[in-house]
Amino acid sequence: MDSHWLEQCRAGDSLAIERLVQTYQQAVYRLALSILDDSDDADDATQEVFVAALRALESFRGNASFKTWLFSITVNVCRTRLHRHKRRGSLRQILESLFAQNQAHPENEAIQSESDSALWQAIHALADKHRIPVILRYYHDLPIAEIAETLGVPVGTVHSRLNHARERLRTLLKEEPR
């Protein structure tokens, strides 16, 4: 996102704001859905993220990428929602939407869906501080440095949390009946 476009958004240019939302809406929604596991809640969170981002646009200094800054806001909004609602559920719908495009045969889809479902259930069983870095790293392909910046923690902490999460996932997936 170039500085001219940001200045237009800061000035309240509705076309620039619309372009900003269109550019990042899908990525923000996918991240919110990955964390919240509820499409309605993810829709609401996405709207809340853009309202918060537009209100805080003056604080964006360009130290990080705009997407990283926006993901940081998204994670914070989602954390607040998780704490407020204290709810958990299956990530199966997310899994199906993420992997449906990659399946060629119904048999393969069924096998992959079962395997992915077990993985998503295991990921969902992780504590937030471990689950969110896993989602950001493996489902949103963020580099470790951007995850650290998004979560406001040191790079070493991200490495540690990912390592702990991988070990916990190995344990959880070994416990799954085959």
Written account of the structure:
- The chain has a domain at 1-87: Orthogonal Bundle (Rna Polymerase Sigma Factor, Chain: A), CATH 1.10.1740.
- Mean pLDDT is 81; it is low at 87-96.
- Helix 5 (92-99) packs across helix 6 (106-125).
- The protein is built from 9 helices and no strands.
- With 178 residues, it is mainly α.
Helix/strand layout:
Elements: H1 3-10, H2 14-36, H3 39-55, H4 66-85, H5 92-99, H6 106-125, H7 128-139, H8 144-151, H9 155-175
Could you tell me how far the N terminus lies from the C terminus, measured between alpha carbons in angstroms? 47 Å
- Secondary-structure arrangement, i.e. CATH architecture of the domain at 1-87: Orthogonal Bundle
CATH topology of the domain at 1-87: Rna Polymerase Sigma Factor, Chain: A
**Rg calculated over all Cα atoms:** 18 Å
Return the average pLDDT rounded to an integer: 81
Number-wise, the strands total 0
Instruction: Write down the secondary-structure element order.
Output: HHHHHHHHH
| Class inferred from helices and paired strands | mainly alpha
Key phrases:
single chain, 178 residues, mainly alpha, Rna Polymerase Sigma Factor, Chain: A
Please outline what is shown here:
The protein has a domain at 1-87: RNA polymerase sigma factor, region 2, helix turn helix motif (Rna Polymerase Sigma Factor, Chain: A), CATH 1.10.1740. It has helices at 3-10, 14-36, 39-55, 66-85, 92-99, 106-125, 128-139, 144-151, 155-175. Helix content is 77%, strand content 0%.
